[in-house]
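Quick one:
INPUT:
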């Protein structure tokens, strides 16, 4: 069951920033743990070379290794998905180009909001098909996966074009006036 985002009123970019910061914090914690393990192994190696076992270092190492579950990233992924933020999580696309998918699946494939799919259809960027499937009480919009890929490619091409550079830089950093 999807719950509401815990901080109502956050813009999508703020949500993404909070999610990125959560993963960054987790990565910093993991790095600190790895650094401490490295220190303990160094200490342990020095003792082994002298034939003096360091039980204190081994006990601390065991404690660190058992403290955090190995799937901390998966826990964060599950938490964010339960809050309705699915765009960051991995999922396998198991659709053929000729498959028809519902709006919610189309949104998941393109990693955008369902309302954006509707706006793209209304604006003519995405061709939709109004179909009543068996068991449904009303017609719903469906989209061919190949059309979703085409929209994704067109968006990627449009946003990755290099800007037209008409001015030249002087060696001192000034640019030519237009």
């Amino acid at each position: 069951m999807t719950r509401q985002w815990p901080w109502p009123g956050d813009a999508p970019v703020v949500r993404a920033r909070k999610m990125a910061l959560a993963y960054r914090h987790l990565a910093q914690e993991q790095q600190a743990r790895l650094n401490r393990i490295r220190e303990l192994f160094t200490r342990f190696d020095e003792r082994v070379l002298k034939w003096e076992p360091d039980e204190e270092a081994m006990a601390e190492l065991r404690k660190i290794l058992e403290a955090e579950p190995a799937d901390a990233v998966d826990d964060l992924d599950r938490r964010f998905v339960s809050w309705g933020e699915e765009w960051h999580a991995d999922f396998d696309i198991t659709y053929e180009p000729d498959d028809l998918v519902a709006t919610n699946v189309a949104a998941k494939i393109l990693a955008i909001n369902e309302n954006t799919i509707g706006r793209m259809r209304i604006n003519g960027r995405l061709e939709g098909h109004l179909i009543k499937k068996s068991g449904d009480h009303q017609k719903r919009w469906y989209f061919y996966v190949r059309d979703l890929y085409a929209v994704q490619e067109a968006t990627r091409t449009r946003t990755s074009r290099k800007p037209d550079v008409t001015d030249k830089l002087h060696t001192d950093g000034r640019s030519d006036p237009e």
